[in-house]
Amino acid sequence: MRPELVRIAPRTGTAFTMKAGQTLTVIDPEGEQVADLLCFNANDVAEVLSSGRTLDYASRIYLTTGDPLYSNRSNVMLEIVEDVVGRHDFLLTPCSKDTFRIIYGDTDPHQGCFGNLAQALAPYDIKPDAIPVAFNCFMNVPIDGTTGAISVLPPLSKPGDYMKFRARMDLIVGLTACSALQSNNGRLKLIECRVE
Amino acid sequence: MRPELVRIAPRTGTAFTMKAGQTLTVIDPEGEQVADLLCFNANDVAEVLSSGRTLDYASRIYLTTGDPLYSNRSNVMLEIVEDVVGRHDFLLTPCSKDTFRIIYGDTDPHQGCFGNLAQALAPYDIKPDAIPVAFNCFMNVPIDGTTGAISVLPPLSKPGDYMKFRARMDLIVGLTACSALQSNNGRLKLIECRVE
């Protein structure tokens, strides 16, 4: 049986469980579209993905094939096993009403990836306050090494590009098709994923 | 009455409360010593300092005078009102037993800033799992803009250098004299602070 391909509509999110050893493929079918990825220990949701631990242990802000993603308890949650793009972000929190208000000046802001993740994760008893920095697949965030300036540029992903993660523990995963225009080169597209 | 100067012994940490409007001065008396700073909303400890929100809104990884530090709810918790050093880190989590085990290969690791913060914050009902990326005062972490490589170099702080924060809400604050040799140019020193 072919594992099901899940389509995440533009500006929405979803959540699902994975067993240790399963793989998750995140696909960008049209190209230049970011997907925010979060995960929690399925047996104790106080254990969550940690950018700070992961970047410290990697000694690199750009992660790719072979890199483990650590939890706040320094356990490996996911490992990147395949990555055809090679540029993702792990510095910035999911876009939210406040992002759109503070950065874009929107008066009636969309709930963003943060709101989409909060909604999708609520049935798993995960509170919005527990949403940390996400691993932002395909998000292209160069840093100026001298000034520290952060830029948000169009993703380097082309149509059909993907990356694959292996779960190293039983997980609850949240995943979005990112809602911020700047992150997605001005056009909000879908994301596909598959667990197998 | 002169506000009390608190001494934080090498490789230890402390916690205290601040009222909105008060200032916190963090002093590096001997120079080249990092202090990990965390804060929680005193009225609801689920609201906590967020590196991801702060860096996103600043569009810079290096923060200094005038920059607000945001919570996971996008509220301003602290504002940097004076900074004579100009280089601090907001990417890496507090050093921990696991840091010393994974990065330094220690077999009997010190509890690090993470353990010190967990201990100091426990009386305020803050759980270790709730400790996020800290604002690491005086920590000098350049990023290679091309490769994304993270370096940990000696702090730029000279003896007596300091930075001052203003609280924008009632806070519980955790603060350490950092325990990691590499972050402090190989010598673990004290930190001083003052709330007024």
Folded structure, characterized:
- By secondary structure, the first copy, chain A, is of the alpha+beta class.
- Chain A has one domain.
- Helix content of chain A is 12%, strand content 28%.
- Chain A contains 3 helices and 10 strands; from the N terminus they run E-E-E-E-H-E-E-H-H-E-E-E-E.
- In chain A, strands 1-10-3-8-6-5 form a 6-stranded antiparallel sheet.
- In chain A, a hairpin with a 5-residue loop joins strand 5 and strand 6.
- The longest helix of chain A has 10 residues.
- Chain A is globular.
- The mean pLDDT of chain A is 95.
- Chains A and B meet through helix 1 and helix 2 of A and strand 5, helix 1 and helix 2 of B.
- Chains A, B: Pfam families: DUF1989.
- Chains A, B: InterPro entries: DUF1989.
- Chains A, B: This is Urea carboxylase-associated family protein.
Catalogue the unreliable spans of chain A: none
Q: In percent, how much strand structure appears in the residues of chain A?
A: 25-35%
Number of domain modules of chain A: 1
Number of strands of chain A: 10
Structural class of chain A: alpha+beta
The oligomeric state is homodimer
In N-to-C order, the SSE pattern of chain A is: EEEEHEEHHEEEE
Q: Please, what is the average pLDDT of chain A?
A: 95
Helical amount of chain A? 10-25%
Largest sheet properties of chain A: 6 strands, antiparallel
What topology, given as strand order, has the largest sheet of chain A? Answer: 1-10-3-8-6-5
Overall, the morphology of chain A is globular
Chain pair forming the biggest interface: A-B, 41 and 41 residues
Distance separating the two termini of chain A: 10 Å
How many individual helices of chain A? 3
Q: Any idea what the radius of gyration of chain A is?
A: 15 Å
Pfam families (chains A, B): DUF1989 (PF09347)
Protein name (chains A, B): Urea carboxylase-associated family protein
Domain DUF1989 (chains A, B): 7-172
InterPro entries (chains A, B): DUF1989
